[in-house]
Design a protein that fits this description.
The protein is an all-alpha fold and 262 residues long. The chain has a domain at 3-172. 73% of the residues lie in helices and 0% in strands. It is built from ten helices and no strands. The chain has helices at 6-24, 30-53, 71-96, 99-104, 116-127, 129-149, 151-157, 162-175, 177-205, 209-242. Helix 1 packs antiparallel against helix 2 and helix 9 packs antiparallel against helix 10 (209-242). The radius of gyration is 20 Å and the shape is globular.
Length: 262
């Protein structure tokens, strides 16, 4: 699906990143507005995939479809996500002594003789404490992530309420934990491990400041392609689990998807 509409998907994802970045720049309110609207924009990407699967063309306007399809429940999903991740950080702080929380609040202690802006992070990475803290957060956040996985699609395509969407998503992900685990490993490989290996090799061959600048643009393009592919994959996995064997009704290329599909 991505190969058949590369440019549109890249523009869709790039616009999504820009909008989220702009929201995050809003003083005080931005840090809450961005995660609240994340499920809303996720529905827009689902709508683009819904249209393309039925023979239509994904369009940039699809990104805003979530604003006319159960907007209140979608924003409530964002609130659940914020609450779940916040709780995970606090639970991890009880175990690791607040390592990650001190870094997030800017209270990480710098190492002796190091620059204040980066010393705290460098010391945490060197000691392994940061990796341990992030693993703890990921563990405690797992129920929230699984409950949110298919929830936006269920809200829009099934007209599910908040609790029904979260419950159905959690049950579906637990029932399919094996492919989900493999999918997670694939994301870690393509999204983290592969870029790190590539970056290390390139920087070893060309250890110059200009190399870092070039790598930033390379990884930006790679991130757009990867996120677009993952967005389509989320829709495909939803279809495979909740509509297995269903015969699709084709639509004309110019027909937008309805706010709620049946």
């Amino acid at each position: 699906m991505f190969k058949r509409a590369r440019l549109t998907w890249l523009v869709l994802v790039a616009l999504y990143f820009v909008l989220m970045s702009v929201l995050l720049e809003i003083p005080y309110a931005g840090a809450l507005a961005a995660p609240l609207l994340k499920p809303v924009f996720a529905v827009g990407l689902l709508a683009a995939a819904w249209t393309q699967e039925r023979g239509g063309r994904p369009r940039v306007s699809h990104l805003f479809n979530g604003f006319r399809a159960n907007l209140g429940i979608l924003m409530a999903l964002g609130l659940v996500y914020v609450a779940g991740i916040t709780a995970a950080v606090f639970l991890a702080a009880l175990v690791d002594g607040g390592t990650l929380m001190s870094l997030m609040t800017g209270n990480a202690k710098p190492a002796a003789g190091a620059a204040p802006a980066s010393a705290g992070i460098e010391e945490l990475i060197r000691s392994g404490d940061l990796q341990w803290s992030m693993m703890l957060v990921a563990f405690f956040a797992m129920p929230t992530v699984l409950a949110m996985w298919f929830a936006p699609a269920l809200v829009v395509f099934h007209d599910a309420n908040l609790s029904a969407a979260l419950g159905a998503s959690l049950r579906a992900t637990l029932a399919n934990w094996k492919p989900l685990a493999l999918y997670g490993l694939a994301i870690a490989g393509f999204g983290v491990l592969l870029p790190l290996i590539f970056m290390q090799i390139v920087y070893m061959l060309a250890p110059a400041p200009a190399t870092v600048a070039v790598l930033r643009y390379v990884f930006l393009g790679y991130a757009l392609v990867l996120y677009a592919t993952l967005s389509i994959a989320e829709y495909v996995s939803y279809r495979d689990i909740f509509h297995a064997g269903e015969t699709l009704s084709p639509i004309s290329p110019d027909t937008p998807p309805p706010p709620r599909a049946t």
